[in-house]
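The data layer described in this paper is built around a simple, fixed record for each protein. Such a record has a labelled line for the sequence and another for the backbone structure tokens. For reference, a complete record is included directly beneath this paragraph.
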Amino acid sequence: MLDQLSVTSWLPSVFLAGNAAVLLVLQGQEGSLSFNGAIRTLIQMEWGAIIVLVMSVIIAAIAIQAFEFEGLRFWEGYLRSRVLNGWARIRIASFSKKRTRLEAKCDELATAAFDDARRRALDSSGISPAQVATFNALEKTFHGRPLDDSDRVALGGAADLRWPRFASPSLMHDWDVAKLKLAEFPEHHRVLPTRLGNVMRASEDQVKLAPGEDLEGFMIRHVDELPPAMVAEHGAYRRRLEMYCGLIFVLAALAALSVACLWGKTAEPGWRAAVPLAYVAAMWVAYKAAIASAIGFGQAVKEASLWLQKHTIPLP
């Protein structure tokens, strides 16, 4: 049975059981609390206590793996509770506004970068009249002014012009950063209530599916057609994503347990505050790690979709 449990459930379960054991030992200490003393106590445990601890790890691993997929869906923002629906609507509205602001910022930074590139190009001596005409036509496009027939002809040289090469590197950097942030959002009608969900949906919406095909089983259906390296990369990011999402729940449970175990230690106010806050901070770190893994996971799925388009029957 144990070989059915994945590393994504083993690691969080060991972390949960180990930290819970330390917290329970700390609760039983008299006088000032000692982390080193708690570790020494655990090391000196009798075999019966060790067996209980091992069984706790196994049970925790089974429970974590059983709800691994649902946990991931929860942090993506697929909330089935009526209690959380109101919160979800508020978050969706907030993310929608943020996406709108990012779109406006991208347009603003693109215009600023182009204006800078045009000024630099026109001030240089190595630019041809045709390039000047293209810059002038692009300038009208960026600022929303109408084009005449000569402008439309001049725009034909926009690809060869490659205007960003004339722009300030700092302005191009600001524009690139804004585009990266915007790329983490799906279309307005597809926004979810969590950042993790938006990052994953933004990538998943770029996957080309065959008629009647759903996204959830995309990799499962095509795993035999894809290169082993691509499948391994997808699996690695998927395991990290599941592990970090499970770890968030574990850390939340440990934060609550630390409050329960240390609440009666009135002589140790630093411990009472620091330990729960450390677990809460670790939750934030785990969530950020899940987002980073989701970006890699989404990229792997997109690459798989592109590979299938090039090497198998064309997808729509």
